[in-house]
Amino acid sequence: MRNPNVRLLFLPLFMLASILLPGGRASAASIPHGTVDLIAENQWIAPGRQAYFGLNFHLEKGWHIYWVNPGDSGQPPRVEWHLPEGLNSGEIDWPAPRRLGTSSIVDFGYEDAVMLLVPVRASSTLPTNQAVQLGAQLRVLICREICIPGKAQISLTLPIKSMPPEVDARTRDLFTAARKSLPQREPGDWEFKVSDEKDSFILTAKLGRQTTQATFFPLEESLIDNSSAQKVVTVATGFQLTLRKSDQLLKPIKRLKGVLELSANEAYVIDVAVGDAHSAK
Amino acid sequence: MRRFITFSMLFALAALAIPNLILAAKVGQPAPDFTGTASNNRTYHLADYRGKFVVLEWHNNGCPYTQKHYMSGNMQKLQKQWTAQGVVWFTIISSAQGKQGYIDADGENKYMAKMAAAPTAALLDPTGAIGHAYDAKTTPQMIIINPQGIIIYDGAIDNRPTDDVKDIPVATNYVNVALGQALAGKPVETAATRPYGCSVKYKGSWF
Questions:
Q1: Is A29 helix (H, G, I), strand (E, B) or coil?
Q2: What is the pTM of this model?
Q3: What is d(CA B97, CA B127) in angstroms, rounded to the nearest whole number?
């Protein structure tokens, strides 16, 4: 299945990249139908500060990996960090996903290229004037028509210095792009309501502007029927979105949490109390 | 009148186009009947098994999640344990011809012998008719039907949605729990879960 030509093309590129970019990014590790590397936003680690690192995926055309809620099938990437004492990793910041699939099975994930941001906190007692290695054992499921589990060991060596960290110019654009792909906090003057109807949830959004396009990605599994079309009704101040309930949802829920995407690179994290049908009218 | 006919025809067409919305099986509702041809060349008719518990197991031998439960012997153990207690177990292969997991009768019989699989029968469903009637989404996906023909469980095999064999000993097996409760005459506490695994490789699906 693997296309040898693509790999032959990629390999020298990444070897070159690892020579040109010492420190900021290590050479990419191979995963089935793609590569992954660990990259740093800053040139060094400073004690007492938090810094961002990226799990930078490149996938061959047509292959995808998964969001934190994979949808109807699949599995999100899992990372086991191997960090020296004094460094602690946080949770992955997941970019807004895409709907993958067309028929009765719809998954949520990423195609082509994606970078997952992870914060790492350095203790204030971390000894300076040394270099440390950050390592991660990655397990990832890569799918196109079929799914292949992959494993990769990725690592990066960075110095520790007491002076304030400086951004690494070589990775700056990647981090800027990754932050753009993250769902944002909703503006304070927006209002959301969710009403619980028999077979669906109706999300009503008042955004102060007419909105014709909206897609909701539930953070938790088994809330909505992933493959059902999400019907958008445009109103003067926003929209109404109909989300068909999942067959696996047997009990009422209190809140609907997830990512609301209004257009490419415009997505928001929402967390809305679920009211009964009356309170939303 | 002509307009009425046109509308009803449209509706019928829509019903054909989106069968999963209209016919999808649900926990607490009657299990859609089916007739399936097995790899042993026999024909099995679900309605003939009223009075028995029936397990449906969606299967694709190329899927890493299916392999997790077969290479470890976990699925075969379940099949032996429950068929020994009178439960009917159908392994169902809904992969279309040319897609991963598609297999002919001869190939499936050899696979089952090699793996020491012990379902009542392996049903070959390359048209996806049975899979779509139950809206099966993943391999493995597990459905349990009670002796009255009602679906009492639909979802994952266990609570560890991974392809890692090491998770099997620490997982809660939903099928064991549900069958244990149902055979003891108790209601099934966890009746619907999100199935995990590979997507079912239906005809016309692009992944």
A1: strand
A2: 0.83
A3: 8
